């Protein structure tokens, strides 16, 4: 599977500063095994990352792209930036904004997989996950990603990070969006509004979608 095959299904609504990008809803069939469910989660997160950052990530290269920790740390800093923008809008009204660390994650950009620098990047991301309140049971260890010791833990942690971003108003993977809609329905509330993408490079995204 190449990058062209990995382009997410998206809809662009509006123009200019009011442009909103949403992942197209898709139906999920019952999964026959845990492996099938893991594959679906990886696929969903890969489309989400591609949509947000126009990076070349697919189900097939999922862990190869993430194992240096660079994309993970970049996402953590994007969440921090988004949280700061929300803080300017909401002040101290949002408890989720207050839980985002103030400092950026420091990481090495040009690193090779399984090197000390790559492991350090991954470790910094895991520490950041702890700081934003991701429960220990949902956090992964460095070797879970670098050595593929527990791929499921990595995926579950990324979904939990996506839930934190969703509470701030960021775009979330389809699975997380569905969870929010179900929670709202059970609570008798209207479904959550469509998320506006502030972290997305719309110019590059327009090129990708076209």
Secondary-structure map:
Elements: E1 10-13, E2 20-23, H1 34-53, H2 62-66, H3 70-90, H4 95-98, H5 116-131, H6 142-146, H7 151-168, H8 174-186, H9 202-209
Antiparallel strand pairs: 1-2
GO cellular component, one term: stress fiber
Domain Calponin-homology (CH): 39-166
GO molecular function, one term: microtubule binding
Describe the structure.
Residues 39-166 form the Calponin-homology (CH) domain. GO terms for molecular function: actin filament binding; cytoskeletal anchor activity; microtubule binding. Pfam families: CH. This is GAS2-like protein pickled eggs,GAS2-like protein 2,GAS2-like protein 1. The chain has a two-stranded antiparallel sheet. It has helices at 34-53, 62-66, 70-90, 95-98, 116-131, 142-146, 151-168, 174-186, 202-209; strands at residues 10-13, 20-23. It has 210 residues and is mostly helical. The chain has one domain (34-187): Calponin-like domain (Actin-binding Protein, T-fimbrin, domain 1). Residues 10-22 and 196-210 have low confidence and may be disordered. Helix 1 crosses helix 7 (151-168) and helix 3 runs parallel beside helix 5.
């Amino acid at each position: 599977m190449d990058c062209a095959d990995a382009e997410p299904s998206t809809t662009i609504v509006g123009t200019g500063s009011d442009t909103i990008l949403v992942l197209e809803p898709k139906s999920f069939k019952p999964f026959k095994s845990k492996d099938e469910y893991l594959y679906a989660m990886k696929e969903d997160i890969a489309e989400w990352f591609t949509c947000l950052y126009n990076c070349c990530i697919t189900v097939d290269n999922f862990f190869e792209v993430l194992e240096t920790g660079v994309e993970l740390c970049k996402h953590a800093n994007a969440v921090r930036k988004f949280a700061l923008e929300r803080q300017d809008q909401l002040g101290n009204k949002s408890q989720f904004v207050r839980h985002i660390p103030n400092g950026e994650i420091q990481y090495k950009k040009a690193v090779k997989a399984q090197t000390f620098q790559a492991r350090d990047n991954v470790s910094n991301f895991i520490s950041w996950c702890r700081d934003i309140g991701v429960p220990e049971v949902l956090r992964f260890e460095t070797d879970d990603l670098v050595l593929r010791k527990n791929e499921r833990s990595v995926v579950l942690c990324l979904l939990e990070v996506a839930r934190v971003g969703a509470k701030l108003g960021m775009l979330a993977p389809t699975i997380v969006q569905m969870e929010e809609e179900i929670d709202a329905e059970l609570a008798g509330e209207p479904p959550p509004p469509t998320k506006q993408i502030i972290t997305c490079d719309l110019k590059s995204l327009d090129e990708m979608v076209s």
